[in-house]
Amino acid sequence: MRKFEELDKRMASEVEADTLVRWGGVKKIYDETLEAHKDDKKFVFFDGPATANGYPGLHHMLAKFLKDSFCKYHTMNGKKVVRKVGWDTHGLPVELAIEKELGENLPIIAEDLGTITQSVRDLRDKFNLPGMKILQFAFDSDEESAFLPHNFTSTNCVCYTGTHDNDTTVGWYQTASQYSKDKVRRYMNTDGSCIHWDFVRTCLGTIAAYAIFPLQDLMAVGKEGRMNTPGSATKNWAWRYMKHELSDWLANMLHDACELYGRLPAKEDEEAEE
């Protein structure tokens, strides 16, 4: 979608106008703003951090592409941050207004994690947005988890080994409870010696339309490669890889796994059949 393709081009200049601030630092501002306008039917407000790791937050991004939208700013520590984003829907229900402005089948993944209400599920499904399935979460308790692949009820989801907010798979496994480790080994029929590839293969083998895993999980990187720890202000987003680590062996392993589970691009899949 062209409006979303323009995002990368705009980011560099827009980031300069904002500043990376922690969510806790502006949460009070958002709470006050949303409370003041909770009965206002004219505007839709997108709440969330002003920026995310140096990039505009989702609500800020949407405001750039929605007509009759606006950003109000607040000065914090001498820096300008987004205070609120509003959008005039011209009386249309928000879901119809967004479809009218941005079209159907939005390229957005719904972060439907944690405790969510039925209304959130209904909105996700109304827009046909894929939800998130995190494999690490599937083994965190002795309960029957919706994150276990055999409990997936729709292909309209994204399966992750873990996200940027999780430990790497190797790091997670090393610190997991004995119960969780045992459940993983039995579920994936493995001895755990290559747990990162066990998770990657399981992720690829689900019915999820999309499979995503961090590069750390392909490279068997431990907890030292964790990308982000929620609630921590330091030592985040610092992991880097070296060019030589992207080896032909690793590429072939990933290619073969994608081929096995039918996840090669359509054109390459046709060439392989020939």
Could you characterize what this model shows?
There is one protein chain. The protein has about 270 residues and is of the alpha/beta class. The chain has two domains: about 1-100, no CATH class; about 120-274, no CATH class. About 40% of the residues lie in helices and about 15% in strands. The protein is built from 13 helices and eight strands. It has helices spanning about 1-5, 5-15, 25-35, 60-65, 95-100, 120-125, 135-140, 170-175, 180-190, 195-205, 215-220, 250-260, 265-274; strands spanning about 45, 50, 55, 70-75, 80-90, 130-135, 155-160, 210. The strands form three sheets. The protein has a three-stranded antiparallel β-sheet. A three-stranded parallel β-sheet has the order 6-7-8. The protein has a two-stranded antiparallel ribbon with strand order 2-3. A hairpin with a 2-residue loop joins strand 4 (about 70-75) and strand 5 (about 80-90). It is globular, with a radius of gyration of 21 Å.
How are the secondary structure elements laid out?
Blueprint: H1 2-5, H2 7-17, H3 23-36, E1 43-45, E2 51-52, E3 55-56, H4 58-65, E4 69-76, E5 79-88, H5 94-102, H6 118-126, E6 131-134, H7 135-138, E7 157-160, H8 169-175, H9 178-188, H10 195-204, E8 210-212, H11 215-218, H12 248-260, H13 266-273
Parallel strand pairs: 6-7, 7-8
Antiparallel strand pairs: 1-5, 2-3, 4-5
